[in-house]
Amino acid sequence: METAQILALGRxxxxxxxxxxxxxxxxxxxxxxxxxLFQATTSLQDSxxxxxxKLCAAVLALVVAGxxxxxxxxxxxxxxxxxxxxxxx
Length: 89
Hints:
single chain; mainly alpha; 2 helices; 0% strand; elongated
C-alpha cells in the first residue's frame, strides 16, 4: 500500500472525528450561549447553572445524530478492515 493511500485514510479518520463530535459540541455551544445571555439579563452569577442544560443538549444531540454517527463510523471501520491486509503485507 502506498504512502498516499495511508495518508488519505488518516485524513479521512481525522475528518470523521471532527464530524462525529460536531453535533454535541455545537448543541452545547448554542445552549451555553443562551444560558450566558439568560444569566447576564437576570444578573445570576452562578457558574454551575449552565452545566445541566449543556449536558442535556449534548445528550439530546447524540441521541438525534447517533444513528448517522454510527453509520459513518461503521462505514469507515468496514473500509479500514478491507484495506488492512494490504497494509500488513
